[in-house]
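Fold this complex.
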Amino acid sequence: MRYFTEFAYNGTNFHGSQRQPNGITVQEVLEDAFSTVMRQQVALTLAGRTDAGVHAEQMFAHFDLEEQETRNKDNNPTGMVQRLNSLLPPAIAVRNIFPVPEDAHARFSAIERTYEYRITTVKDPFRQNLVTQVATGLDFDAMNKAAQVLLGKHDFASFCKVHTDVKTTFCTITRAEWKDNAVFHISADRFLRNMVRAVVGTLFEVGRGKMTIDDFRQVIEAHNRSAAGQSAPPQGLYLTRICYPFEIPITGDCTLQE
Amino acid sequence: MRYFTEFAYNGTNFHGSQRQPNGITVQEVLEDAFSTVMRQQVALTLAGRTDAGVHAEQMFAHFDLEEQETRNKDNNPTGMVQRLNSLLPPAIAVRNIFPVPEDAHARFSAIERTYEYRITTVKDPFRQNLVTQVATGLDFDAMNKAAQVLLGKHDFASFCKVHTDVKTTFCTITRAEWKDNAVFHISADRFLRNMVRAVVGTLFEVGRGKMTIDDFRQVIEAHNRSAAGQSAPPQGLYLTRICYPFEIPITGDCTLQE
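Structure:
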């Protein structure tokens, strides 16, 4: 039987989301806790990969359990979520566990992902590693005009980490805008590795007056990572929403895009 | 010449605000940074003392500088604040430095202090050590009715850490209420050691139905710490505002009480 789990994490002390040999990852810590609570080896398939220091307010993963195991007397989802959260470190919170169709896939079934990049101009002792501090004076009007150039289906190779093995560097961006001079919202059907941080770093160049909106358009058209600006630091980046074409039993305004 | 400095800190990794031999404190770290930037030994007198793990969104301290020193070419307050913040760890942010009358005293001139105690019923990976997690089901109506009993001038010995050397345990509380089922606001002319955490811990007893509002009144009237409930944990507690009877050059709604 296939299940989805929804969870959130503070990425500060993890070597990213995806299991890897060189450091503790979100996947590894979650799989250990799930395996303990479910009393069987649980393998999670995450909806996406986030880099070291990047956070997720909403992430999904799928996993499979033997049917008889899920009918254990204490296997009600609420109880499982509570036991998982007691077992997990403070940096990871499981929000929900629910059954899905057998062919539902956390990564491949997702139809839209949203990231936010959060900045501040003021030193904030309460958001250490949770926001990127930038100098005052960024031109948000210019950054928003440049952001509009991103909308639609384009080849975003210029914002893709080099030496990444992907079939295609085309993505369809459905939202890209700065709100309240503090948060950049970006939604797409898919994202390339390092893409949001490269986009934000290049928008900072526009905001600082070092790049025009025409320059920004040429960066996209170059299809070459070296044309874009430096990646913005990871700590301001949050995966905030993933949409699926089937019902997800959570609160929120996850409406499907046309 | 006497100056005030306004600052904020995340108390998680400090052994409280006040200098002491057994651990790193906010005062010690600040005095080191101020002494470096001012190029002379600076001694800070803080407006109040917060325990280990308690935070401050607004704290003040006063210090004295030789007049000629303050006229150094690069001693403009904005420049000093920036240099202090680069030198200080991420957990402390200096907001302002400004001259005050010679008899202004950060602690004794303060006429009102406000604390907030912040709770959540949901595991929050982004506010580790910044909020206290409590079980659902607290009766906030009952807690607010009990909180009203606190208003006015009373002997609050029941909420004062024992073996504390104070001249009087009388305080005048001008505000005490829970807002949005999440934050307790309390304002008074002065607070005793451990007072807010003892008040909140005892209000939790009321919220859990283990103590009536009459019981709560009797706790106050007992003038005995053992009558009250356990102290609530430090991480939910924030000093948020201090009012002085003279002009403080900051934003905010620090209106004087009659």
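The two ends of chain A are 30 Å apart (CA to CA).
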